[in-house]
Design goal:
By secondary structure, the protein is of the alpha+beta class. Helices cover about 40% and strands about 25% of the residues. This is DNA repair protein RecO.
Length: about 260
Amino acid sequence: MRVHQQPALVLHQRDYSETSLLLEVFTANHGRIGLIAKGARRASSRLRGVLKPFQPLLIGWSGKGELAVLTAAETDGPGYSLEGPALYCGFYMNEVLLRLLHRHDPHNALFDAYQAALQQLRRDASNESVLRIFEKNLLRELGYGLVLDQDIEDKTPIDTRAMYDYILDRGPMRLAYPELNRPTEGVQIRGSSLLALAQESLSDPVALRDAKALMRAALARHLGDRPLHSRKLFRRVVPLSAMETAMETGLDKAGR
C-alpha cells in the first residue's frame, strides 16, 4: 500500500539503527501509524528538522503492518511554537494520544480537535481549560463520551445550583443532601461545572477545578496504572500548589 500527501503530526520519535528514526504519527485519515524514517538522522537528510512534534506535515508512506516506511515528508504550514508550560501541555496531549489511540483507527474529528488545541495553546494563557476541552473531545471520539447535560436517574436537565455524584461510565446523579458529606460512588461535582464543561466555557476557576477532577478520574479508567511521563516532567518545571498536590494524590489513588 502506498499513501501520498497525508496531513499528519508527529507524536513521538526515537532513534533507530545508526541513521534512521522510528516515528509514531497521528494522521488525518489513517489514525495513528508507526513509520520508519530511513536515513533521517544523516546530516545530509532533507528530513532533519522536519520530523518533529507540533509541526503540521504532509507525508507519504509505503507498506503494511505495524511499521511502514516513510517515503516523503514536507511541512504543511508553520509549526505550533509552544513554549514554557504550553510546551509541556503539548507533550501531555501527545502522550495521551499515544496511550489511547489504536493504530490504523481513523479519527478525523479528533485530529481536528488536536490541531485546534495546539493552536489555542500557542495563543491562549489558559492552558488548563484547553486541556480539559481536549480531554472531553478525546473521550467522546473514542466512544467514552461524558454525560454532562442531564441526571442519569430521572433524565432531568442539570441544575446549576445542585451538587452531583458523577458515576464513571454512567453519568451524574443529583445528591439530595450534599451538606451531609456522605461518601459518594463517583466524583462530586457542581451542576454549574458540568454545564460549563459541556459548553466548553471554563473561565470560572471553580468550574475549571471541578472539570480537572472529573477528567482526571475519567481518563484514569482508560490509561491504566502506568504513570504519564509528561505529567511528571511538568511537575518538575511547574510546582503544584498544596491544594492541587492533595487533589492529585487522591485522584491517583482512586485511579489505582
